[in-house]
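Re: the 486-residue chain
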Amino acid sequence: MGSRQVTSWHGKNITVAGLGVSGISAARALAGLGAVVTVVDNGDGDAHRARAAELAEQGIEVRLGRLDDGAHAGEVLPEGTELVVTSPGWKPDSPLFAAAAEAGVDVVGDVEIAWQLRESRPGRKAAPWLAITGTNGKTTTTQMLASILKAAGLRTAAVGNIGTPIVDVVTGEEEYDVLAVELSSYQLHWAPSLRAHSAAVLNLAPDHLDWHGSMEAYAADKGRIYEGNTVACVYNVADRATEDLVAEADVEEGCRAIGFTLGAPGPSMLGVVDGILVDRAFVENRQKNAQELAEVKDVNPPAPHNIANALAAAALARAFGVEPRAVRDGLRNFRPDAHRVAHVDEVDGVVYVDDSKATNTHAAEASLAAFETVVWIAGGLAKGATFDELVRKSAKGLRGVVLIGADRALIAEALARHAPEVPVVDLERTDTGAMLAAVREAARLAEPGDTVLLAPACASMDMFANYNKRGDAFADAVRELAAGKA
């Protein structure tokens, strides 16, 4: 897939697909450069109309809902369109993109626009991008990287899929030395020109296959992050698929493959030795020498998958020339977001942990592996996932399981096949009190020394607005449980 570089935006007819945060950001930036922008979206609610009114004040046309001919606005290519800019969630087989292909019109995403606009402000040098993707751990690793870069005294920001629209950052007033960029597979699919300074693929596991169509297509989109890298392609030694993506990438001459591992590192790797994070990649005589970076206890929380995140962040920082002390200080300063292996409370000797962000099987597996004995609260929307491998790998540490949500039967069936001795509570209710019931059932199953872990392995939208609301409900239920024990 290729994309023609735009040399002048003035007067160019651009259609933006989607009236979400990234779509609005791209529309405003392009209109500000003189483009003629039309935004299309199938929605037509009050929120859509309010956003449309705000954009209209900037001279941006917005087409919502159904058009006069009965077609949906988001399915019809406006006449004269020269480029389509899509929001990440729009599927590649959307009718709008089929119409664009038939008309010979390129489709790109907001990340591609940001990449092309990064030198749009006269007299300002574009900041290099240190880019991160993977099935799990992207946000945490990006935030860790930003913390390390700040500890090194660099002007930086965590941007992209992490919540701050990257177009706003590259076109804004503030100047940066380097950007820590989280990229989803959706964003990478639509960013053919992206060429990062260095990039990491943290891991690969089946996810979003309904969007990509196959695991091969999903992996290929993740692998785009390595294309044209200039200094380092960081891969996970424990996940051969990430190294394979490095081998397949067309990089700049001299770009190096850098591995990270939870074991002792070989040359050109970062790893762990006797509780110390060490670097054997960015040191002189890496065949014999290693550089201490930080201690495992500097990583918060020091769960295995999070130590891997820290090593990946450290590798990208070291590729950018950051000194070891800044790696240590940045990891010490980092505090994870809510709902990511977050300690909620301890009640009657049982620890309650919120990892509502574990929305797929790969993330749940890492979370379950971080604790010795677990009462697992799981379930929600499976998104086409299967659970046999997850249950098989995690069965030994399960004290019990409480299942909630629309697709809980899929997990129950996997438990029956691979962990028939583990007690399972199947909660049919989906009302607002369901999480409290789940926590109470988990407390009944748990013994002192156990961990009650919310790591659903599923999306949340069957019962909650998002994984944050699900995690909040869990924390509220734990607090109510604790209050009842007082």
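The two ends are 61 Å apart (CA to CA).
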